[in-house]
């Protein structure tokens, strides 16, 4: 098992979300998803982006304002990966994902201030 396999497997074991949901889970799964996304970014930018999106959605969905700076960094990393993703498949492309976030979480001014700087 490679280091990436170990990180991803560990991440999966810590996530306990309801069926069909990426988000609520133990606090420590974010600590595991960040290095997993970083490890996957070069060769698997979509996988890295999906991990980061899960963390962004968890943060904004739970109004976890102490994590807004991390979520802003994750969104910037998603934007960086966007040109490397040739096919999003059935997942929203980056621009549409951001539009959806603005529609759903537009009043979280502390977060958007970090994005719009």
Task: Explain what you see.
It is a single chain. By secondary structure, the chain is mostly helical. It has one domain. Helix content is 64%, strand content 0%. The protein has 6 helices and no strands. The protein has helices at 3-14, 29-40, 45-61, 68-81, 94-105, 109-116. Helix 2 runs antiparallel to helix 3 (45-61), helix 3 (45-61) packs antiparallel against helix 4 and helix 4 (68-81) crosses helix 6. The longest helix is centred in the middle third of the chain and has 17 residues, at 45-61. It is globular and about 35 Å long.
Outline the fold blueprint.
Elements: H1 3-14, H2 29-40, H3 45-61, H4 68-81, H5 94-105, H6 109-116
Short description:
InterPro entries: DUF6880. With 117 residues, the chain is mostly helical. It has one domain (3-16, 24-116).
What is the tally of beta strands? 0
Largest sheet: none
What is the H/E string?
HHHHHH
Rg computed from alpha carbons, rounded to a whole number of angstroms: 14 Å
Features:
mainly alpha, 0% strand, 117 residues, single chain
């Amino acid at each position: 098992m490679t280091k990436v396999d170990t990180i991803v497997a560990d991440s999966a074991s810590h996530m306990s979300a309801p069926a069909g949901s990426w988000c609520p889970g133990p606090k420590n799964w974010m600590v595991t998803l960040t290095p997993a996304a970083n490890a996957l970014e070069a060769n698997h930018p979509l996988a890295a982006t999906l991990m980061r999106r899960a963390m962004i959605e968890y943060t904004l969905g739970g109004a976890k304002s102490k994590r807004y700076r991390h979520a802003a960094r994750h969104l910037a990393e998603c934007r960086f990966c966007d040109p490397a993703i040739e096919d999003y498949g059935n997942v929203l492309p980056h621009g549409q994902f951001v539009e959806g976030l603005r529609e759903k979480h537009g009043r979280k001014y502390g977060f958007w201030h970090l994005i719009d700087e």
